[in-house]
Amino acid sequence: MRILLWRALWLLCFAVLWRDTEAQLRYTIPEELKEGSVVGNVAKDLGLDLSEISNRKLRIASDSGKQYFSLNLRNGELLVNAIINRETLCGQSASCVLPVQVIIEDPLQFYRVEVDIQDINDNSPSFLSDTKNIDVSETTLTGARFHLEPAQDADVGSNSLRTYALNKNEYFVLHVKNDNDGTKVPEIVLQKALDREKQSIHHLILTGIDGGDPARSGTTQITVKVLDANDNAPAFEQDLYGVKVTENSAPGTIIQRVKAIDLDDGVNSEIEYSLGSLTPEAIKQLFYIDSDTGELTISKSLDYEMSSTYKFDIRARDKGAPVMEGHCRVQVNVLDVNDNAPEITITSSPKPVPEDAPAGTMVALINVKDLDSGVNGNVTLDISPDTPFKLKPTFSNHYALVTDSQLDREKFPRYDIELKASDAGSPPLVSSKLVTVSILDVNDNPPVFSENVYSVYIKENTAPGSILASVTASDLDTGENAKIVYSVLDNTQGVPVSSYVYINSENGSIFSMHSFDYEKMKVFHVIVLAKDHGSPPMSSNTTVHVFISDQNDNAPAVIYPPTSMGSVSHQRMSRSAKAGHLVTKVTAVDADSGHNAWLFYRLAEATDASLVSVNLHTGEVRTKRAVSEHGDSSQRLLIEIKDNGEPIQSTTVTVDILIEEGVHEPISDYSMKSTENNNKKNGKITLYLIISLGTVSLLSVLTLFTLIIYIYIYTHCKKCGVSQNTTIKQCTFLIIHAPLNDGKYGIITLIFT
Ligand SMILES: *[C@@H]1O[C@H](CO)[C@@H](O)[C@H](O)[C@H]1NC(C)=O
Ligand SMILES: *[C@@H]1O[C@H](CO)[C@@H](O)[C@H](O)[C@H]1NC(C)=O
Ligand SMILES: *[C@@H]1O[C@H](CO)[C@@H](O)[C@H](O)[C@H]1NC(C)=O
């Protein structure tokens, strides 16, 4: 507006002044000259001397307020005073002339100078805005045109806008339309289908180019925003998700986050997740997917042993119209956890084993199993140590329980074997089972007597049928093998023991069958056999030494002095016998022994007790004093002999002593007694020797005689022989003959025959 106003004013002034001027000058300068640039020499062109310049006061005046020019007063050159911008002064008009009034005084003259301002290309084309946004649907068809603002260029003519250029791109091309008024209007034309998902924004640069030389240009940035259409289905990041979940994971555990991407924009890319429409109900109960986040969780704990894998589809749907959807597949692998303890099964229950079973005898069959897999299900079976059993693996997870060494029921009648199965999981799970194996008895132990040798002492004369001794044997075996029968073994020679004792076969009590007489038998031995009922039976024996102890069952028997006519013994004694004279000596014996046979002699009664005494131990009867001249010629003594037994047994002997006159005993005093006794004894021995020799001689004669008879009979018998018609005479020979064959005893037999 201002430019236009100035221009109007100028034209007005110019018209007024024009009439008063005679000549006019015209200069042509380009715009934008520097200050001080010479436009032209006004003085010279007006024909003025240099002196006139100052004398006539040459000066210039401008119509407008602004002085674009100045005058050099020394040489009269018109100079550019201020930079002249054509566009400011004249706008788009094709010509631009600045009038300058030149004034000279004396005389006053006006000259009109026109300075034609030539356009130079000092303005670039420009757009109203630097940026321009265009929204284009990605479904827009090719060929569609989009109108753009034309560029402006302040310059005129050839310096004004001449053409447009668009940066090279594959989607849009430039088309310039010439409007009716000659304005060049740029348009962009879609030449290739858009894809927002490929490129949602296209940046284009439109350049307006003028016709100057050099040309100037101006640009605007065009932003083409591609609007979304729901032309993309959601796509999962992975077609297949492999998920590993340990069994027994808590319900609610997120096992996977699936993600689908929808290349579209806005609601077209908003995704809802769900399980595939054909998912079985069972899987729907186990798995849950969050429709917004795509988090896959488990609704229940998974059990590896029930199923180790699950496969299903997940669907992603966008919210565009129409709805588009995508799918992916999920494979859930359940990882085993050691949550099952091994199980021990006794497939064949243990049988009782005889104790003599050889090592390796099978006792039971055992089976282990573990529902877990891999190492968690790898079970090892162990047996409690210190048992004579071992496990023998048969085939996978089957074992035979066999004996490992010799058994002995007497030490261990049964075994409680602990079987322990443990898997290789971490931590391992363990289970155990108790197997009881009983050991059967075998008759491997003989009965054993409580003592090696029994010694018993019995009194003689005990009643038959009383218990002599009781032996007991025990047998470590059991049942029939331990049932013992006692018996008495007969000795091979002599009187069989079984004839005087018998044994209770069940309890081992030995009974007597007789009463025993110590005086006949002092000791005997019973061999007792204990035999069990096993098969084969086992036995052992022991010896019972039975010692018979003496009882005082025998009264003393008087062997001297000999008694005739009852129990009276007659002794003689001389009246002249002095004190201490040995009248007689009573000698008794007792069949018992020990103190039962210790004898004591005592004078029980006497005609004159003051005359004789009896030695308590020796039984010697001696006079205590000399016999009185007129005393009785006959003395009767009753001597009692007692033993030391319990009860005491005694006997008596009556000795009659006849006191004779004048009979002189050769030994009358005690000191000579033993010599006399010795002599008497020697005499007796001599007598006995004579008798013996006589007897032997007689026997020899008899033997000789018999031999002669024998030889006679023998030869006679040889001659006649023994025929069937044996006569009594011959028979006599035969009877005599038979014992003769038996040797020397035959002789005696012959004699007696
Ligand atoms: C089980 O354990 C044994 C001994 O440790 C080993 O030899 C075997 O290979 C294992 N088996 C499995 C299936 O792991
Ligand atoms: C053995 O048995 C007999 C007869 O039954 C009995 O008299 C005896 O006292 C028993 N012996 C023992 C030691 O029990
Ligand atoms: C008694 O036992 C011993 C071994 O203790 C044996 O030598 C003997 O033959 C047995 N006697 C009998 C008669 O069985």
UniProtKB/TrEMBL annotation:
A GO CC annotation given for this chain: plasma membrane
Database matches in InterPro entries: Cadherin-like_dom, Cadherin-like_sf, Cadherin_CS, Cadherin_N, Protocadherin/Cadherin-CA
One Gene Ontology molecular-function label: calcium ion binding
Domain Cadherin as annotated: residue spans: 21-127, 128-236, 237-344, 353-449, 450-558, 573-668
Compartments in which it is found: Cell membrane
UniProt xrefs under PANTHER family: CADHERIN-87A (PTHR24028), PROTOCADHERIN GAMMA-C3 (PTHR24028:SF236)
Biological role: Potential calcium-dependent cell-adhesion protein. May be involved in the establishment and maintenance of specific neuronal connections in the brain.
Protein name: Protocadherin 1 gamma 9
Record lineage: Eukaryota, Metazoa, Chordata, Craniata, Vertebrata
